[in-house]
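Obj.: predict assembly geometry.
Materials: sequence records (below).
Method: joint structure prediction, all chains together.
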Amino acid sequence: MRRPAGGSSLASASSRPRTLKSVARRNAILDAALDEFSARGFAAARLDDVAKRAGVAKGTIYLHFADKESLFQELIRFKMGPVVGTLESVFAADLPLRTMAEQALEIFVREVYNTQRKQVLRLIISEGPRFPVLAEFYYREVLSRILRGVRAILRHARERGEIDDDAFIRFPQLIGAPGIIAIVWSGLFDRFEPLDVRAMMQAQFNFLFGTRRPQ
Amino acid sequence: MRRPAGGSSLASASSRPRTLKSVARRNAILDAALDEFSARGFAAARLDDVAKRAGVAKGTIYLHFADKESLFQELIRFKMGPVVGTLESVFAADLPLRTMAEQALEIFVREVYNTQRKQVLRLIISEGPRFPVLAEFYYREVLSRILRGVRAILRHARERGEIDDDAFIRFPQLIGAPGIIAIVWSGLFDRFEPLDVRAMMQAQFNFLFGTRRPQ
Amino acid sequence: MRRPAGGSSLASASSRPRTLKSVARRNAILDAALDEFSARGFAAARLDDVAKRAGVAKGTIYLHFADKESLFQELIRFKMGPVVGTLESVFAADLPLRTMAEQALEIFVREVYNTQRKQVLRLIISEGPRFPVLAEFYYREVLSRILRGVRAILRHARERGEIDDDAFIRFPQLIGAPGIIAIVWSGLFDRFEPLDVRAMMQAQFNFLFGTRRPQ
Amino acid sequence: MRRPAGGSSLASASSRPRTLKSVARRNAILDAALDEFSARGFAAARLDDVAKRAGVAKGTIYLHFADKESLFQELIRFKMGPVVGTLESVFAADLPLRTMAEQALEIFVREVYNTQRKQVLRLIISEGPRFPVLAEFYYREVLSRILRGVRAILRHARERGEIDDDAFIRFPQLIGAPGIIAIVWSGLFDRFEPLDVRAMMQAQFNFLFGTRRPQ
DNA sequence: GATGAATGAGGGTTCATTCAT
DNA sequence: TATGAATGAACCCTCATTCAT
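Observations (raw structure tokens):
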């Protein structure tokens, strides 16, 4: 369930730990923090538990992060940063709309939904309103880029006659909506009624782009 | 000496308080609690602030609610309970699908989105994962009923030939998705890029049910 | 050894506790704080110990004082404030220089040296350099007034021909010097060689004003 | 593996360190420590800052001193030790009282007041009460010697008929008092009202020994 | 020797909860 | 009922001290 969180850390800031051990420790702390923050929320999470889970002493956290809030913010940045690069490359391709949607779905499921990043997104959703800097980071570095890319693709598709509706362009959120809904749902209701993300996204795509061979 | 401040777990029901003043006080506390919990999250909210905002003493809160968590849970129940009844009546009607969707949209915007209930939903989304009882309450008392109602309507509509797809029935969440997305979005990104709920829901309806006179 | 610290609290600021109990508690905390701060210094003193000594819970301290530093500053103000008034009245009288000196000596010994105020002065001397606000308070509210009063008296005495030297007026500190020295000495060396404040002050007065019947 | 960083409690003596570098380092640490202890007090000073200021690693301090308190005590000893010798030589001379006083004044101003030693004395005054060993060291190694010397001189002077008062002999502290007062004053009130040590000491000498050519 | 990352006990502060009035 | 002073457990953060390199 833990992933050593390699990743290029495009957006991560501050902190320049030299040794390998130091990096490993930092990552262990970040992973532990993600677990604890996810399980209890930012305010209720205890750095004591983060330390315990990371296998370090409490003070060690402060060698890597200025305080609890910094840890939280850097956590989000660190785990989210790498996505950006990946996304840009998807948008670069020039394929039929539906194909791209399928690809995006796969990327989302593989890189986000079945990943720590699901927790990260949940944290952004939960805590974002109390951390404007964080919400802004996510909007600027991730979301707005995705939206821009999607809109470009959609405009392209319309020029090619693949779609005739401009609702897409006004509300590209609708494309990702099922993904977000699934993330929210899974945290709340999965034990009552599990939800098949992939299938729901497919269904939405069918509505949006018309029925195709799904997969 | 203390009154455990029942609340039978059944939806709303202002747990039989004696005087009128008492009811008013209780409501004031609930309103204040909603504001504070929304602004700071459950864990970070201070009962001191709730009391101040409600214009009562801190101890008074404990005359109406067993503890902070009870206050939170009863808050959700109290603010969400009434919705249920309203919804049932909508489902009862037997109108064309699109018409019903339009009605549901209006109800959602009027009764939820432009209301305290938006905050309540946000709280459920944010804090629900840490309050299984609450998630269960919401699922059982609200969500599952809505889904059941929607599914019934959809099945009806299919029988009437209004729709031929069973994706609806498998994923009725897609109908409400834009509403949830808008609630999440508004808490995070409205200052960067506001979102027109109504229009986005319309757009989604167009995709789902085909284009109609939107209003 | 403790003195309930009545006193009019001329300079004391903030905090308006209503009840008698509240005032008593506040005073108990101030007394305990004086003891602890005196024994260990500001930085090393533990509020835990202050609370214990005052017979209250740790949190209670924060009902009366914003934080450790406030407690410290208000302590100094509270214990020093009352002196001011007393002093003014001494200066008001119009007596022979030596007589006034004798009176000042008595007041100093009675009101300061054999009092909590000795500890307070020691704290001002020890911690003042790190608490400029405090040093300023003491200078403005106490010291400068004393110096002003003394200088006025001396000028008067010179006009009367009681003294012909202006060294007094330039360095009125010399009059109080033995008192301060005694306070410093007693904290450091009393166990090796005790010092008789009264006698030393008398000796200094003899040097300054010429030998007289010392009382 | 560690060297307990002796320091035999005898005054100064840079506890026989091997290399020249080592001595320099030790001195750098002592200087840095003096600065930090003076600025923040013993308890609040951070060894981290001492190390930074001394240009060494934190651990290095522990190669030279057993712990924070040892560093502090050795600091006082090291900076105060040398004074002793100097003083003895002054007392050895056999000059008129006033002349000796003038000389002592000069030595005090040159060797103490315009020196790091002023800070050291301030530290003794501030922290001495919490460090009995230190107060004892200072009393035994410095103060009692000075007092003994002064008393000897005074007795001598009386035999010569230079003075007829025994107040001096009972309270030789009065001779040094203005120096101590000036040190205390300068740390607290110099920004409000600076004090001319030399002049104040002269004034006191005039009172004590009668007016003479002040240089 | 020298370093500085790591440790973890300690202490200031907060705040849910209690209870005397 | 209502109050709000009092409580004390809990938690973030600091920093003296250790120790592997």
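Conclusions so far: Chain C has a mean pLDDT of 87.
To do: check interface contacts against the pulldown list.
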